[in-house]
């Protein structure tokens, strides 16, 4: 599929399907659309009326002009109220268009949507993202694809000639999102610590990043007792991944991104019980997937920022070697942890990753983790929790997320709640009371960062979607990649 930009006038465009946006309450065709309507004996306006199309956001109607015409079909897509037009409106509208056009067996598609905020570059980028993310289908584990419709061959973004660079930028970002979706969607017998390390190797090789993989012995030397405590029940070797992107010129900033990389979370000896969704726990490396996805995108976008992409990868399993509930682990900053619940393993792996990142002398650290069910209870499945003591980083991340349509919401870091993690025998326990569980998890992580500005995103909800929503299909969303990229570039 090729996406290209053109300034061909709407009335001169020829191809299978022409898609046009209409604002809510403004479905009376005017200007070029009136001429188009007139050319086809008023059929467009007639069907808009007959189908009671109002321009409600993301609604579509298809009008057949006839197989022998220069345009065979028109798709009208609703844009909602004009004053509410956002880039996200365009991403979602174009996702509806792309899906509808594919169902209509469209091979050549022309899309005419309004330019957002007089910014054709941002518009072309958003349209490309919406199209590519919506049309992605994961057929790796099907012996035969279910969708038998042909792929769309070319898509013309009408009125956006000259925006080729924005389209390329979107391609690069989407390649990272799709990598993250693929890693998250693949089951734990396909994506392991070993394949995650191989994926990092492939990114390093393709896009010129440096890679360091710390093996178990290296982690032992660094005293990563928390990470290794989780890893000890697995039959697979732990892999501590550190990918480094360095710009050709001097770096303006130096950043670290950390992702939770638990390729399967059984809970350990505190095994996940009925109704806990153990069968979905292949997605527990969604933070690491977003980190690798961002690395893939940044390796192509090449900003003037040095970025360290870090993940301590293992699985949380059960065996005679497993941690006992109550075991005491020593993390690489010397702090001791009483593991009162082996199912709170993510924070143990992150503890050593945070200590490692803090020693790199970076300007800021952001971690992403499918850390707590409590965060999903608090914010629902679409919104990630943002936890940070640093107002500046909070506002940077909020701005970055807002520009992408990924939803994050700042949660309080209530210091008093750390009392819930007090241990009679060690420096802290790894879990506290049931209530406020996403906050105590964040307060636990804070113990492993000294002075570096740091933020934690709990992505347990948005890493996965139960049903299709906008440009995300049902399943892995690749959440976090676009926010990270936007934050790094800003
Ligand atoms: N990976 C889970 C968190 C999770 C839950 C992610 C649901 C996605 C959906 C994490 O390791 C975990 O098990 N957390 C426990 C913490 C508890 C033991 C304090 C939880 O949320 O129940
Ligand atoms: Mn767990
Ligand atoms: Zn987990």
From TrEMBL:
Gene3D superfamilies in the cross-refs: Leucine Aminopeptidase, subunit E, domain 1, Zn peptidases
Entry binding sites for Mn(2+) 1: 265, 343, 345
CC cofactor: Mn(2+)
Keywords associated with the record: Aminopeptidase, Cytoplasm, Hydrolase, Manganese, Metal-binding, Protease
Residues at the catalytic site: 272, 347
Keyword Protein transport annotated: no
InterPro entries, sorted: Leucine_aapep/pepB (IPR011356), Macro_dom-like (IPR043472), Peptidase_M17_C (IPR000819), Peptidase_M17_leu_NH2_pept (IPR023042), Peptidase_M17_N (IPR008283)
One Pfam family, short name: Peptidase_M17
Subcellular location field: Cytoplasm
Entry keyword Cytoplasm: yes
Catalytic activity entry: Release of an N-terminal amino acid, preferentially leucine, but not glutamic or aspartic acids; Release of an N-terminal amino acid, Xaa-|-Yaa-, in which Xaa is preferably Leu, but may be other amino acids including Pro although not Arg or Lys, and Yaa may be Pro. Amino acid amides and methyl esters are also readily hydrolyzed, but rates on arylamides are exceedingly low
Family membership: Belongs to the peptidase M17 family.
Reported function: Presumably involved in the processing and regular turnover of intracellular proteins. Catalyzes the removal of unsubstituted N-terminal amino acids from various peptides.
Stated name of the protein: Probable cytosol aminopeptidase
